[in-house]
Specification:
Layout (H helix, E strand, L loop, with lengths): L4 E4 L13 E4 H4 L4 H12 L8 E6 L5 H14 L4 E9 L2 H10 L4 E5 L11 E7 L8 H13 L2 E4 L11 E7 L2 E8 L3 H10 L2 H9 L9 E4 L5 H12 L7 E2 L20 H9 L4 E5 L6 E5 L4 E2 L1 H10 L5 H6 L3 E5 L5 H9 L3 E4 L4 H8 L3 E6 L3 E4 L7 H15 L3 H12 L1 E12 L1 H16 L7 E4 L2 E10 L2 E2 L6 E2 L4 E5 L4 E6 L7 E11 L1 H11 L28
Parallel strand pairs: 3-4, 3-5, 4-9, 10-11, 10-12, 15-16, 15-17
Antiparallel strand pairs: 1-7, 2-6, 5-6, 8-9, 12-13, 13-14, 17-18, 19-26, 20-21, 21-24, 22-23, 24-25, 25-26
This protein binds 6-O-phosphono-alpha-D-glucopyranose and zinc ion.
Length: about 550
C-alpha cells in the first residue's frame, strides 16, 4: 500500500491564471514546490467533488510536460481522485482534452501547454484547468484557484507511486486503503472517432485522391512540431490517404524545433512558401497545442481568420454534423472583423459579440444558442467541443470544398461578391512600457467618450467615416448575467467599419497594444472604388498591397472580380 505524505509549503506570488491558464517561463515552474502548489490549488478549488472523480491529463509535448504529468499523478493520488485518463506519453491536444472530458463525463481536465508560445528550457510552460463542460475554467473558478495559491500551506502527494505513461493500458494502485487508477489512453483515438462522426471522411478522401475526371486535390498540412503531429498523421495520412508528402513537421518536439509554433503568415512562412512554390490546392497549419489554425489556398491565397469564420458560417449545411444537429447562432470576439455578422443577418441567426478569449463562448454553447464561433487570433471552432479546434477547422474547410467543388480562392471571391468584404488588419506594439500604455488607453477612452465624438467624422485617403458609436467594450453574459468590463476601445463607423484598441492579455513582458482596423466595402462599391482611385489592388484577391500572391496587378479599371 502506498502512503500519502503531507508537505509543508509557502505561497508564491503571481500564480494568477491568465486568459488561458497559468503561463510562465519553464524556470519559474522549476522552483521548489511552485508547480505542486498550483496543482494542489486546482484540486482544492474542486474540493467536495474530488472523491471518486475522474480527471483528464495531457499536454502539447513541450519541455516539462512529462515531469509535470508525473507530479499531477502523485498529487491527484494524494487528494482522493479516483481515476486519471492520461494521453500516451502525456500527449493530448487541447481540443482532444475537451473532447475526452465530454465523452467520458469527467470532472474536468488539466492541460499542460503554453499554446503557441515557444518551448524548451528557456521558454514557456503552462497549466490550465478545464471544467466538466470541456471548456477553460471561467473567471470565478480561476480567481478561486488564484486565491488558494496565495494562502496555501500544504500539499498532499504520494511520492513512492511509480506510474510510467509510455504504454497504453490501465494501472491500479492501492493508496491509503483506496483504489487509484491511471488509464493511459491512445492520444488520438477518441478525437479521430469524433471527427469521423462530424465529417464525411469518404467524401473528403475522394476529394484528396481525385477521380477519373478530377485531379487529386493536393493538401499540405503543417503541425509545426506541435502536438497535432500524431492527429494529422492518423487523419490525413491513414484515414484520408493523403500520403506522407502531404504532411510536414508531424513529430512533436519539446522545443518545436526552435520555431515559434504559431500558425500565421510570419511564423508559418515555410508552409506559405512551399504552397506558393509547389503544386498544392490547400495548406493548413496548427499551433503547439492544436487549437489555432491558418488556412491558405493554391498559390498561398491567404484566408483571414475573420473571413474563414464567415465563409464557414455561410456553408455549414455542407458539414454532416450541422446538417444533423442544426445551426444555432454565431459568435465572434469583439476585435474580430464583422464579416460573419452579415452572414448571420442573411440567415436569420442570432449573433453574439463577446470579449477576447474562448471561455466567453462556452455558456452560449451550453445553452444551445451558439453553433460556430471564431476569433481574429486564428481560432475557429464549434459546439462540438468547448475549445477552438485547428484540425476541425481544416476538415471543415475541406468538407466545404469537397461539397461545392470550388477552390479556396473561388470560395472567397464568391463570398465577397455576395456579402461584401471586411478588410482587416491588426498592428501589434509589443513589449512597451506598461504605465504609458495604460495612460494612453485612458486618454483615448476619454476622447472617444466625450460629447460630440459620436456624430463626428474622420477621414482616410478618399474616404470619410462618420462615427456612429464609441465605447470601452463591456459584455454581459446573456446566460449567467456576469459582466466583463474594460474589454477594449471601440470606434464604430456608420458603414460598419471599425477601429479597435486593446491591451493584450497574453504578453509575457511589459504591455502589448493591439490596434485592429476594419473597413467594409460592399461588393459593388468595392469594384467602383478601385476604378476611380486607380488603386491597382491584386487582381486575384483584391487586396492592396497583396500579401497572398506575387501580385500581378491589372491596369486600373479592368481588375476582374
Ligand atoms: C489566447 C486565447 C484566445 C485569445 C487570445 C488573445 O490565445 O486562447 O482565445 O483570442 O489569447 O490574445 P491577446 O494577446 O490578444 O490577449
Ligand atoms: Zn493554442
Amino acid at each position: 500500500m502506498l502512503n500519502i505524505v503531507t508537505v509543508n509549503t509557502n505561497p508564491y506570488e503571481g500564480q494568477k491564471p491568465g486568459t488561458s491558464g497559468l503561463r510562465k517561463k519553464v524556470k519559474v515552474f522549476l522552483q521548489d514546490n511552485y508547480t505542486e502548489n498550483f496543482i494542489q490549488s486546482i484540486l482544492d478549488a474542486n474540493k467536495g467533488s474530488l472523491e471518486g472523480c475522474t480527471l483528464v491529463v495531457g499536454g502539447d509535448g513541450r519541455y516539462l510536460v512529462k515531469e509535470v504529468v508525473d507530479k499531477i499523478i502523485k498529487i491527484c493520488a494524494g487528494n482522493g481522485v479516483a481515476k486519471l485518463l492520461i494521453g500516451q506519453n502525456g500527449l493530448l491536444s487541447t481540443p482532444a482534452v475537451s473532447c475526452i472530458i465530454r465523452k467520458y463525463k469527467t470532472l474536468g481536465g488539466i492541460v499542460l501547454t503554453a499554446s503557441h508560445n515557444p518551448g524548451g528550457i528557456d521558454n514557456d510552460f503552462g497549466i490550465k484547468f478545464n471544467c466538466s463542460n470541456g471548456g477553460p475554467a471561467p473567471d470565478a473558478t480561476t480567481n478561486h484557484i488564484y486565491q488558494l495559491t496565495t494562502t496555501i500551506q500544504q500539499y498532499k502527494i504520494v511520492p513512492d507511486l511509480v506510474c510510467p505513461v509510455d504504454d497504453i493500458g490501465v494501472q491500479t494502485f492501492k493508496v491509503a486503503n483506496r483504489e487509484f487508477v491511471v488509464e493511459v489512453i491512445d492520444s488520438v483515438r477518441d478525437y479521430v472517432d469524433y471527427m469521423k462522426e462530424i465529417f464525411d471522411f469518404p467524401k473528403i478522401r475522394s476529394l484528396l485522391q481525385g477521380s477519373e475526371h478530377r485531379k487529386p486535390f493536393k493538401v499540405l498540412i503543417d503541425s509545426m512540431s506541435g502536438v497535432t503531429g500524431p492527429y494529422v498523421r492518423r487523419i490525413f495520412v491513414s484515414e484520408l490517404g493523403a500520403g506522407e508528402d502531404a504532411v510536414r513537421r508531424v513529430t512533436p518536439l519539446q522545443d518545436f524545433g526552435g520555431a515559434h509554433p504559431d500558425p500565421n503568415l510570419t511564423y508559418a512562412a515555410d508552409l506559405v512558401n512551399e504552397v506558393k512554390n509547389g503544386d498544392y490546392d490547400f495548406g493548413a497549419a496548427f499551433d503547439g497545442d492544436g487549437d489555432r489554425n491558418m488556412i491558405i489556398g493554391r498559390d498561398a491565397f491567404f484566408v483571414t481568420p475573420s473571413d474563414s469564420l464567415a465563409v464557414l458560417a455561410a456553408q455549414l449545411h455542407r458539414i454532416p454534423y450541422f446538417a444533423r444537429v442544426g445551426v444555432r447562432g454565431f459568435a465572434r470576439s469583439m476585435p474580430t472583423a464583422a464579416a460573419v455578422d452579415r452572414v448571420a443577418r442573411k440567415l436569420g441567426k442570432e449573433m453574439f459579440e463577446v470579449p477576447t478569449g474562448w471561455k466567453y463562448f462556452g455558456n452560449l454553447m451550453d445553452a444551445g444558442r451558439l453553433s460556430l464561433c471564431g476569433e481574429e487570433s486564428f481560432g475557429t471552432g464549434s459546439d462540438h467541443i468547448r475549445e477552438k479546434d485547428g484540425v476541425w477547422a481544416a476538415l471543415a474547410w475541406l468538407s466545404v470544398l469537397a461539397d461545392s467543388g470550388a477552390s479556396v480562392e473561388e470560395t472567397l471571391l464568391r463570398h465577397w461578391r455576395e456579402f461584401g468584404r471586411n478588410y482587416f488588419a491588426r498592428y501589434d506594439y509589443e513589449e512597451c512600457a506598461a504605465e504609458p500604455c495604460a495612460r494612453m488607453m485612458r486618454d483615448l477612452e476619454e476622447k472617444i467618450t466625450a460629447p460630440g465624438f459620436v456624430g463626428s467624422s474622420l477621414s482616410s485617403g478618399d474616404r470619410r467615416y462618420s462615427v456612429q458609436a464609441a465605447d470601452n467594450f463591456s459584455y454581459k453574459d446573456p446566460i449567467d448575467g456576469s459582466v466583463a468590463t474594460g474589454q477594449g476601445l471601440r470606434v464604430v463607423f456608420a458603414d460598419g467599419s471599425r477601429l479597435v484598441l486593446r491591451l493584450s492579455g497574453t504578453g509575457s513582458a511589459g504591455a502589448t497594444v493591439r490596434l485592429y482596423a476594419e473597413a467594409y466595402e460592399p461588393a459593388e462599391a468595392g469594384r467602383r472604388r478601385c476604378v476611380v482611385t486607380h488603386a491597382m489592388p491584386c487582381s486575384r484577391c483584391w487586396t492592396s498591397p497583396c500579401i497572398s500572391h506575387s501580385c500581378i496587378t491589372t491596369p486600373a479599371g479592368t481588375a476582374p472580380l
